[in-house]
Amino acid sequence: MSLKLKALKRSIWLFHFNGGSCNNCDIEIVDCLTPRYDLERFGIKLVGSVRHADVLVVTGFVSRQSAPRLKRIYEQAAKPIFVVAVGTCACSGGIFASSYNMAGPVDRIIPVHAYIPGCPPKPEAIIMGVVKLLSTLK
Amino acid sequence: MNILSNWLFKLVVFPGLIFTAVVGMFASWFDRKLTARVQWRVGPPLFQPLYDFVKLLAKETIIPKKTFTTFILAPIMSLVSIVIVSVIIWEAMLWHSGFVGDLIVTLYFLTIPSIAIIVGGAASMNPLASLGVSREIKLMLGYELPFIMAMFVPVIRAGGTIKLTELLSYEWTNGLFIGSWSGAIAFACALACMQAKLAYIPFDLPEAETEINAGVFLEYSGAPLGIFKLSRWMLLFVLPMFIVFMFMGGIKFEGLHTLWGILKYIMLLGFVVLVKVTNPRIRIDQAMKFFWWGVTPFAIIAVILAFLGL
Fold this sequence. Notes:
heterodimer; A: alpha/beta; five-stranded parallel sheet; 5 helices; 15% strand; B: mainly alpha
């Protein structure tokens, strides 16, 4: 394994995008950073700007208002960037699948590397999703 | 040729870039680990800053149109100035060599990281970054005056010398500056200014992550961001070391004294981190009021007391 890849795997910085979520998944993401789970053990931390991020975490069915913004944020990120869709809404649209306001789910707008279903997914499920994503990197 | 290679070695390897970077990374790990322990978490592993830095070097670099030169030069400016400060301080401590006025040169070079942040943030042409820049400028207006006044106190007590080695030898023969009234007050002022110079909570307004999304660093990505981060980590080593040097006698390389000197630095670093984790961020007007009406009068009192010989 090259040094570059090893460094990337040990230091994942997250940028969180809310695409019309009910805020439940967002709370679960923040839960991962609390003392109980403490993702900083693995070098994972939240950053304020998408230019710094390695992983773009998207929650919520993507509404028509937020779809162009999500696309723009994805384009603004420094590559390589991985996209993780957290929650049933982000994966498939959930109960909003037939809504007039729906532009998503996320993979209709930007490429998605990992799906974490659940309404909301438990912090354990989110961590497992991230670990699975990291194990696919080569 | 020999002198040139000697200086190159000093600048690049031993008290310079590589040594400062390694210790700075350790200081950054110490900061994050202590923060995590205070918050009842486990915290990152020892090599975390190294992983972060290598990862950032390997990432794509995005540069705004039209501002290539200033945008790229700002992090390098910050890094180089900190390396020079480190070399000057360690020269004085290890080999007792220096030149007249190296204290003033050090004070100038210690302001350059802040100026580099201002230049880089302004060059990124982002509204939130410009907000961070304006806050950094205001913060500088607040802390520079008391910081320099606090540094006057050792100079006055040592009889007006502005040479670092003479300050150090005065301290080693006549007792540490922190032991006197004026020295203790000036030391407290310098601690407050150090917190602001490091841009740590409660004075982390320029890069406030929750309100202005990393502020001045917002548009930085990849290698320039890595160099900026590295320079901030190195500042976390150099600035407390400078305060230890000025008020607590630096590190004396004689047997057990070495360990004691290193402990002094770690204690100061721990103090900075504990202040950081136990305080909320304050507003910019509160920060300026704190420095102008809270810290500056005490710095003036310390200077007067030093003139009186207390």
